[in-house]
Design a protein that fits this description.
- Two copies of one chain form a homodimer.
- Chain A is α/β, with parallel strands linked by helices.
- In chain A, strands 10-9-11-8-7-12-13 form a seven-stranded parallel beta sheet. A four-stranded parallel beta sheet of chain A has the order 5-4-3-6, with helices on both faces.
- In chain A, strand 3, helix 6 and strand 4 form a beta-alpha-beta unit.
- Chain A starts with a helix and ends with a strand.
- The relative contact order of chain A is 0.13.
- Strand 13 of chain A pairs parallel with strand 16 of chain B.
């Protein structure tokens, strides 16, 4: 079958199914999610078997260890997929929420109603759990989804899709509410991200290469998740203990996440007081430091940071450190090098905290807290489909609400315009 | 000067000026808007002179009467530009608004802060008043703007730009907060709508041709304003008087606006009761009716509506009329032919009203009110930059809030992630 025809058919089916799921009652959607969880639990042996096939093929194809780890399912990971779906079922339904209704001088009553976007395309890589997560979030938010996973997880994704379809059928929802692509042809991705008539938004979840390709080619709007070059700025009015705790936690609590700090900025007035103690803690943890000249003057054995370092998302136990004159220089550095994901200031100065919050233009801006808090669960969204570094629609962690929009509703009693 | 270089320079300047206006205090922005209004009032003779030049050229170039009318300024129109700017000054400042702050179990406090988008590109056609309106709305919402008006209004736009720049200088804001393009080269538009690094969103204001070109070429997100194929559906549980009033007003209150009804759907159970009286009123007003076979059977002298009619935004005293079995068929028709702008139902049935509100997927959905209410002033936004038929970000009339976004802010007291 021709790939473009295939994707077009997926799109048409999704558009139709989107209408059914948009008007589905909350109880039906929740029942579907719980049924999906049960089907996944029940199918654990089949899921592990399909996954073993993918892992074997992956090894034969020379996938690296990190990729194989992301690909692999085990009983805990299967259970965690099911748990995730039950958590989504427990979240409030965003669809139909009415807000801001007020009477206008004309006598009409105007407000907004939250509505699904329609059809969401999710493009992801090796982790098979995204199939269940993304399907669940799209369904709860009243959207049909077209899921395109990585070719390395093909059998796992198809096995998860079978569970999802069994569950949809059990509550009387059309199977096309969630469609998992049955082709690994790369041309199918190009077709999906340019099919404006059938797809309302694309959410890519994957590495830099995938995201950049989609940004370049897509004509459908994309909820973009760029890399995270996150900064912590230790102001000279910072509390030293808080500064040490936040700078250490932001870097070392996990290395491979997008909200991990990659560059530490330190006001020169406090550098002597915090850097040596912090460097000792990093050293103990095995974090390599790369610093500016001033940092090198304070700390021994720090290699010189290049301009490349300020632009790098290490995702590893490496940290670049720069001493700045004060907040102006810190904000300038962030403006120049940040990817707009998450930045934090450590300060006890009220006006500087206010200024940092207002002037730093990132999706999350923090005062006296670790950058590692920037995710949907920590923010109380219940779950997230990604973290947006877009400027329009949604910035930061995107949960159910980010998969919806608001239309205006107007109530009258025969009102006409004079 | 090379056009691409020129637009690139505009973009770089806008990006820098965007930082200044993003952090400008509300009082400064309001003072700038009032100063703009005063400068425009004071420069009335110059504005009229520059405009006369455009009108003369337009006549020489054979512009049609409608276009010339849109192009022409007179003392009232100049005053109305100034008044519009004062109204924007009086609106609440959306920037920095903090909402939803709440404590999380981890102890951090999380909420959202409303922030400017950054740099907004406005592309418009003949009406010179858009220069002042758009500049004012972008400025108040904390954004820098790059304005590209139609070549036919070139001298008028430059004269308005001079007033704006005088005003910006008088309050100490950089001139680059509002840049009006000094070239009419079409390549400049292409450069602007693909300059993702410097422009955050494009708002086109103009005819179908302009919008379609931008939709096709833009890589910068676009707040799209498609045409308005708006429907009124008269349900068989409608109050006859309300139905007559709303159907008449939705079509005839103004013909050339995007929220004017273009197709009337009537439930067959009420068609005999409303259509003859309605047709008489339309006839008196000079509205031509085009109908389905059933409509033709009820009304004399109605020509047959073709499939083309259901897809046409007449912007004229022409109305297509279709009799449907009931709400299912009405919603199906709307789904197929609506442009997603505005639809209204006339009904006294509670459940049907609820259903129409939920299931009709347009930017404004109304019960017992005229479609003509769908605009920013009527909705209380104070002003509008356009009406969005997008699904993401903003749907319906876009005021100051639609020119902003929300970032997350996190307040802690040394909190780290466990």
């Amino acid at each position: 079958m021709d790939v473009n025809e295939y994707v077009k058919t997926l799109g048409e089916h999704a558009r139709q199914a989107g209408r059914a799921i948009a008007k589905a009652e909350t109880a039906t959607k929740n029942a579907a999610l719980v049924a999906m969880a049960e089907a996944i639990e029940l199918a654990q042996p089949e899921l592990l078997k399909a996954n073993a096939q993918d892992v074997e093929l992956g090894k034969a194809n020379g996938l690296d260890a990190a990729l194989l780890d992301r690909l692999e399912l085990n009983p805990e990971r299967v259970q965690s997929m099911a748990d995730g779906l039950r958590q989504i079922a427990a979240l409030p339904d965003p669809v139909g929420e009415i807000s801001g209704m007020s009477y206008r001088p004309s006598g009409i009553q105007v407000g907004k109603m939250r509505v699904p976007l329609g059809v969401i395309g999710i493009i992801y890589e090796s982790r098979p759990n995204v199939t269940a997560d993304a399907a669940g979030l799209c369904l709860k938010s009243g959207n049909a989804s077209i899921l395109r996973g990585g070719s390395e997880a093909f059998h796992s994704n198809q096995a998860i899709a079978a569970c999802i379809h069994k569950a949809l059928a059990s509550v009387g929802l059309p199977a096309e509410v969630v469609q998992v692509m049955e082709t690994t042809d790369r041309a199918a991705v190009s077709a999906l991200i340019t099919m404006s008539e059938a797809v309302d938004v694309i959410v890519p979840r994957g590495g830099q290469g995938l995201i950049e390709r989609i940004a370049r080619e897509a004509t459908v709007p994309v909820i973009m998740h760029l890399h995270g070059i996150c900064h912590v700025y230790i102001d000279d009015k910072a509390d030293t203990e808080k500064a040490l705790a936040i700078a250490f936690n932001s870097k070392t609590q996990r290395y491979g996440t997008c909200n991990t700090m990659e560059t530490l900025l330190v006001a020169e007035g406090i550098a002597d007081a915090v850097l040596p103690a912090l460097a000792a803690r990093y050293k103990e943890k095995g974090v390599e430091l790369r610093g500016c000249q001033q940092t090198q003057a304070i700390l021994d054995g720090v290699i010189a940071a290049t301009d490349e370092d300020w632009q790098t998302e290490y995702l590893a136990p490496i940290l670049s450190v720069r001493i700045v004159a004060g907040m102006d220089e810190a904000i300038d550095h962030i403006r120049r090098y940040s990817s707009g994901h998450t930045e934090a200031v450590v300060t006890d100065d009220y006006s500087r905290a206010r200024r940092f919050l207002r002037e730093v233009d990132s999706s999350s801006v923090m005062v006296n807290a670790s950058t590692r808090f920037a995710d949907g669960f920590e923010y109380g969204l219940g779950a997230e489909i990604g973290i947006s570094t877009n400027k329009i629609h949604a910035r930061g962690p995107v949960g159910l609400e980010g998969l919806t929009s608001q239309k205006y509703i107007v109530l009258g009693d025969g009102h006409i315009r004079g």
